[in-house]
Specification:
By secondary structure, this protein is α/β, with parallel strands linked by helices. It is built from five helices and six strands, in the order αβαββαβαβαβ.
Length: about 130
Amino acid sequence: MTMTGDTKAILGQSTVVAILGRRRQGKTLLASYLCANAHKAGVRVLHNGPLNFGELIDLEKLMDMGPELQDALIFLDEIHTVLDSQRGNSLVSYLLTHALVRLGHRRVWLIYTTQDDGMLSKRLRFQTDVGI
């Protein structure tokens, strides 16, 4: 993600980023920093509640969105609370990971935080490009 130029140049190639760590280690702070810089550069930021800027969105509505996600950054804080491995076979988990497969055509970044990536479904871990 570069922070110069238009929105297309800012996001570049679609990427899924996992920020991993124990409680109170700064995962949400790091993700918020990245989202704030993208937002200042004109990128549409969607999130599940931890930010005081951007657009608040729930997971089910997010999966229903199509082309309007183009050139957006999505931040899902503590994703394991919604998509843990126990729910790995659920419809919500399936739809989200299916949507992640299609992100490459839309220049969409997904940043998520979790305390333990082992709590997530294998499908979601497979779609993750970068772990921090």
